[in-house]
Amino acid sequence: MRRTAWIALLVWLISLIAALNTGRDLLYNTFYMITIVLAGSWLWAWLNINWISLSRYTRARRSQVGKLAEEHFEVSNRSRLPKLWLEIRDFSSLPGHHPSRVVSSLGGHRKHSWLVRTPCYRRGRYQLGPLLIRSGDPLGIFELTRTLPQTTTILVYPATEAVNGFQLPAGRVPGGEATRHRTHYLTANVATVRDYVPGDSFNRIHWRSTARTGRLIVKEFELDPTSDVWLVLDLNPTWHHAQPWQPPDYIEQPAILWDQSPKEIGLIPATIEYAVTAAASLARRYLAERRAVGLITYTTHREIIQADGGERQLHKILETLAVLEPNGVLPFDRVLIAEGSYLNRASTVIAITPSADSAWVAALRELGRRGVQSTAILIAADTFGPAPRYEKTVSELWASRIPTYVLRNGDAVGAGLAEYARPQ
Known about the structure:
- This protein folds into four domains: 46 residues; 107 residues, Immunoglobulins (Immunoglobulin-like), CATH 2.60.40.10; 41 residues, no CATH class; 189 residues, von Willebrand factor, type A domain (Rossmann fold).
- The chain is 27% helix and 28% strand.
- The radius of gyration is 32 Å and the shape is elongated.
- It starts with a helix and ends in an 8-residue tail after the last helix.
């Protein structure tokens, strides 16, 4: 109860005691007037907070860093009496999300709606709701609240960038021959064309040949001649660093109504964010090229997504990457050794780590001896905080003939993964 309500009740009690002790009509009339005012104020506040419905519609339960999360709110007055004022307060955990509003003078059977577009700048899983409705009487004596406990979640995927300059070694199968097998699946590799037969999908039709020959011609595909891609992410907290960071001021302004994608925000200066963004970008690229991509990492337990292709696989990988934090319990070299025993010569490992320890380089060399090809993405941890320099690790990788890319604080991921790192 508000302080003004306690004061009003104290005045009411004093007027009652004074009226009973003196018996004067003036004090009794004062007591009656205060009683009527208090009762009327509480009734007004009660009417203001009831016969109200509030709905929220989330356009999509998934968003991505650098894109917008959109919600539509509508408050309805289901009574004939007007509502003097309503405060709607939201307790969502999505950073920068400001749907709270104060609605004044909502007439009988009227509605008020508003749209909230929030630029997403931090990946993760967040809660939307609960909501609290608050209102009161014109004198400000009483304020009543209602809580709407319903909640939903929204998942913010990590950002992805174009990594067209990134190169992998060609995949091999046992015996050293490229995989060339016909398949009824759609792949990026067209082997030949043939006449259409009933049951062929229309998206296999080769329209130029059809127009030239005057009959339906369809494409024959073959399996991708390159290997499965395994993204192996290091989450050992020993090597991960971050710098203090605040979102740009314009993002946190609740008055801004975003009509399109927000301005370029840039990555949060943390090694984990660069590592996750690199993994997400590579997964998107190679899945778009119809490659089979898998993800391996260790948090407090083993996290693995078996290599597969397609749009669904991309969402599975992004969902996992969205919530990863550097809380792994195993050094990266032990992760590579443990998982390397399950990989074959038809696999290519992309090791993503901020570690300057040479042990994981030796683990990649051992994988190479077994015929598993690898590429290293080294996050330069010393550009994010106090950490050993990365140049020695690059030299060891270069000497081991392992293609290496380096991402430094402030680099664009696409540009950083477009050129091999050279020993200095």
